[in-house]
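Record type: monomer structure entry
Structure origin: computed from sequence
Chain ID: A
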Amino acid sequence: MILHKIVEKVNLMMLEFTVCICTYNGASRITDVLNKLLTQENTEYILWEIIVVDNNSNDNTRQVVENYQKNWHKPYPLRYFFEPQQGLGFARQLAVESAQGKFVGFLDDDNIPCQNWVKEAYLFGKSHAQAGAYGSLIHGDFEIPPPENFERISRFLAIGGSNKVFRYNDYSRKKVLPPGAGIVVNKEVWLSNVPKSLFLQGRVTGLKLQGNDIEAFSYIRDSGWEIWHNPKMEIYHKIPKQRLEREYLINLMKGIGLGRYYIRMLNRQLWQKPFILILYMANDFRKLIMHVLAYGNLY
């Protein structure tokens, strides 16, 4: 038993890649993700692990993971952590701190990776030394067909991406950044540049501010590291019918809009902020007027 523990500890210290699943009340969803990770192809030469960060669930998520651990016969370990402080940012921070791999790949509990996701994620990190983060090509897996023109807002539900490799730093003057679903980060880059406690924590706060992913990746980008898109890393994002309902989408957009005002001010000089705020508010007000003129109402 002692020898087994020593060998396990040595193996953890040698790991190169970590897959992290952050979940909240995901007992009914996480099994699909774990089952797909059980059948990853061409990973025999990769030293990797899977960790689950339970973000204060009140269902039987822990029992589900422990049942997998009892019957786990793979060379890559499955580990479980509990984060009592609600918020995706707290869960991801614990994940990065606990990960043994140089690269940490994040999958939400409704993100189903393709069979070669781990392999492609690992190889991309090895071949792009200046990459602080890199994202996946994300397909939508819809419970019901999406409405017409859904592609205009699909990126707000973490769906999309090009079929070509590109670097976000050069991709757009608007400084677009990838969604957090299927993102891979360099562990040391994250720990050195991303604050332990981010301001935007997602839908757990009263205002339900969105943008936790963008806030974290903004710190990585602004510290000089490259951020990439890798289409060989493909995942399917499950979208239940509730997420296509009008009320859900309106609340989602409100949270994204409010969160953007904070992100726009990151790394700005104090004297710049009042002028930037006025310019952004004027531009957003212009868009609002154009929308009302085109459609006759706010929604």
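Annotation 1: Residues 273-295 form the longest helix (23 residues).
Annotation 2: The chain has two domains: 2-267, 268-299.
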